[in-house]
Write a structure and sequence with these properties.
The complex is a heterodimer. Helix content of chain A is 16%, strand content 40%. By secondary structure, chain A is an alpha+beta fold. Chain A has helices spanning 2-24, 154-158, 242-245, 253-266, and strands at residues 26-27, 42-43, 52-61, 64-65, 73-74, 80-97, 102-112, 120-124, 129-138, 172-179, 185-192, 195-197, 200-202, 206-217, 222-229, 268-274. The longest helix of chain A is centred in the N-terminal third of the chain and has 23 residues, at 2-24. Chain A has 4 helices and 16 strands. Chain A has 2 domains: 2-43, no CATH class; 53-274. In chain A, β3 and β4 form a beta hairpin. In chain A, strands 5, 6, 7, 9, 10, 11 and 14 form a 7-stranded antiparallel β-sheet that branches. Chain A is globular and about 60 Å long. By secondary structure, chain B is an all-alpha fold. Chain B has helices at 2-18, 59-69, 82-85, 120-132, 136-140, 145-153, 160-172, 180-185, 193-202, 241-244, 276-286, 309-320, 325-329; strands spanning 109-110, 116-117, 223-224, 253-254. In chain B, α2 (59-69) runs antiparallel to α6 (145-153) and α11 (276-286) packs across α12 (309-320). The longest helix of chain B has 17 residues, at 2-18. Chain B starts with a helix and ends in a 9-residue tail after the last helix. The chains are: A alpha+beta, B mainly alpha. The interface between A and B is medium-sized, with 30 and 33 residues.
């Protein structure tokens, strides 16, 4: 009798605990909502919205979602490679409206493939109307690309481009390993940034304009997804063969120019926009 | 003027407490009126010192932390203080594997293997509670700590949490940004031709040290495998793998700062290299191309950066410019006179 009573108490306690935790984890689970609750795991229908714009980056290799570390890819030059890390800046990110209006989404943004929190930018209270294109700079320009121009956070500090090579910041650090012609595994470091040395200046930043099928902003959040296809850095204008450029290219004007030419060609593409949060 | 008033105030508190009427709690007469401090680091590239809302810097907290740091009462045996191993003249380190305490306020990962992550308060809690297992009763029994804890935190019963908080406050003040290299950047001094050659090697892909040991902290707050070993017969060399069990963490260690590196020999997590020449020889010819070597170790496939003799000397000369003698001689960081 005593044990039965005990188990009854135990079970009802469990029940209370369970219902409690179920309660505490429900809320608004839509990141576009004004009352988004990042601790909520179950949507309770409480989300409320405003006119907001979300820009989301996704990473691809030959149009397929990128798999880090374990998947071997092949570029146009025939190099087999695996991707380990990717960090980069986009700047002057702007939405262009059919009526000529321009909305600034961000002055600059840092993306780190290993940090999900950096993959999207949300702008609230965005102007209403029809957005028909998106424009941004790959990298940083002008005053943003001076030493210490960005706040001295660890993230920005780790992106610094050393003063002896021109100062400012790496635009991109894209790293992994490739199977070299000498049959051993080498690192590749596709590091882009403004190179200044005795033989001149090369600035691999470029502007990207992506037309959208017109997207209308009303009292409802909208989203734009842009893809970066990593294998496109290595073809387009000219194939990039890891064997020809060695492991590091920060001091190599030719490599910086070639990657810029390939990059502006078709690394970034518009994937989709959505007006309805349910897609 | 305000400072004098402060001193007068402190004196009158001491006076008061010693004259308290019999039987009353002496701490009743100790004021909790902390003086807030904001640290300014006069260097254009330094991050801001992170603020912990729960543990704001105060003059009283820093002074208490310093007292504790140098006090063997912290250890249950009463035999060593933090400062026994973390010695100021060695940038708060000593032989063979003791990690320095310099610009630690900016870190998020601690200990060679990255055992602890979080704020400085978190690693200090670990040091006090796990490593030292400090017995707060011993602190409570002194005639000075109860007063100091009350002044710093407004508490009468000492807890390990506040011991850790005070240590964190003191260690947050241990910032070094006045090495010869900093003075050179401020155009107050010149580097020799050899040191400048070393600077170029360090900050270019010739030596490629900066990707992990970048300025101004000369560490990146991350962990890497820098190719020290190729198979791992010794447990100590397995690094973060010992904690995570994941093969990609084999041989992965926290990037140590290179500030004051000339003062902290021997080098690496096991102290295997006696001199900076040995370290640069390793990065030149001894790097192992293991499958998880960090991709930033770009020349691992050929054993390293292959510097010639002159360039090895130049890189070492540059590393020597990172010594900050004003830091290791700063009387504010030394053993307190109570």
């Amino acid at each position: 009798m005593k044990t039965v009573l005990h188990s009854v108490i135990a079970i009802s306690l469990l029940g209370i605990v369970a219902s409690f935790s179920a309660c505490s984890s429900s809320g608004c689970t839509n990141p576009l909502a004004v009352n988004y609750d990042e601790n909520a795991s179950k949507d309770d229908g409480s989300c409320s919205f405003e006119n907001a714009l979300m820009l989301k980056l996704s990473y691809l290799v030959d149009n397929e979602p990128l798999v880090l570390n374990s998947k071997t890819y092949t570029n146009a030059a025939g190099n087999s490679y695996v991707i380990e890390r990717l960090h980069f800046y986009l700047s002057e990110i702007e939405a262009f409206y059919a009526n000529g209006q321009v909305e600034k989404i961000a002055d600059y943004h840092y993306f780190d493939i290993l940090d999900n929190g950096t993959q999207q930018i949300k702008l609230t209270d965005v102007a209403k109307g029809e957005i028909d294109s998106l424009r941004f700079i790959f990298g940083l320009r002008g005053a943003l690309n001076e030493n210490y121009a960005l706040p001295n956070t660890m993230v920005n500090i780790n992106m610094q481009w050393p003063t002896p090579m021109g100062g400012g910041y790496h635009y991109m650090k894209f790293e992994g390993k490739f199977a070299a012609n000498d049959a051993t595994e080498h690192s590749f470091n596709v590091h882009l940034g403004r190179l200044v040395d005795d033989s001149g200046t090369t600035d691999p930043s470029f502007q990207v304009t992506l037309p959208l099928q017109s997207l209308s902003v009303n009292d409802w959040p909208v989203g734009i997804e842009v893809g970066m296809d990593l294998n496109r850095w290595f073809d387009g204008e000219q194939n990039y063969d890891f064997n020809n450029f060695g492991e590091g290219i920060m001091g190599d004007h030719k490599a910086q120019k070639l990657l810029k030419a390939n990059g502006r060609n078709d690394v970034f593409k518009f994937i989709k926009s959505w007006e309805d949060i349910l897609e | 003027m305000g400072r004098y008033l402060g001193i007068i105030a402190i004196f009158s508190i001491i006076f008061w407490s010693s004259c308290g009427p019999d039987g009353s709690n002496v701490l009743d007469n100790v004021d909790y009126n902390p003086h807030y401090v904001s640290l300014t680091i006069n260097h254009p590239a330094f991050p801001e010192v992170p603020v912990n809302e729960d543990n704001p810097l105060t003059e009283e907290g820093i002074a208490l932390g310093r007292q504790l740091y140098y006090d063997p009462l912290m250890h249950p045996t009463g035999l060593h203080a933090c400062a026994t191993c973390h010695q100021q003249e060695h940038s708060f380190s000593s032989d063979p594997t003791v990690m320095p305490h310099v610009n630690l306020a900016f870190d998020q990962v601690y200990l060679w293997k990255g055992d602890v992550s979080g704020q400085l308060e978190d690693i200090m809690k670990f040091e006090v509670e796990e490593f030292f297992a400090t017995d707060v009763a011993r602190l409570q029994a002194t005639d000075y700590y109860p007063r100091m804890f009350k002044q710093a935190f407004g508490i009468e019963k000492i807890e390990t949490k506040y011991v850790a908080y005070a240590l964190a406050q003191f260690v947050k003040t241990l910032n070094s940004y006045n090495s010869k290299y900093d003075q050179y950047l401020r155009k107050e001094t010149k580097l020799s031709l050899e040191e400048r050659r070393g600077e170029i090697i360090f900050f270019s892909e010739i030596g490629d040290c900066f990707h992990c040991h970048g300025a101004p902290l000369f560490k990146d707050n991350l962990m890497h495998n820098n190719g020290l070993d190729d198979n791992y017969p010794n447990e100590v060399d397995k690094g973060h793998y010992l904690l995570s069990g994941r093969l990609e963490d084999m041989g992965v260690f926290k990037t140590p700062t290179l500030r004051n590196i000339a003062l902290t020999a021997p080098y690496m997590h096991d102290g295997r290299f006696a001199t900076l020449e040995d370290v640069v020889m390793f990065y030149s010819y001894g790097v192992h191309n293991v499958s998880n070597v960090d991709p930033l170790m770009k020349q691992a496939h050929r054993g390293g950066i292959a510097l010639e003799e002159n360039d090895i000397a130049a890189l070492v000369a540059f590393l020597n410019t990172l010594t900050d003698s004003s830091f290791v001689q700063n009387p504010e960081f030394g053993r307190p006179v109570r």
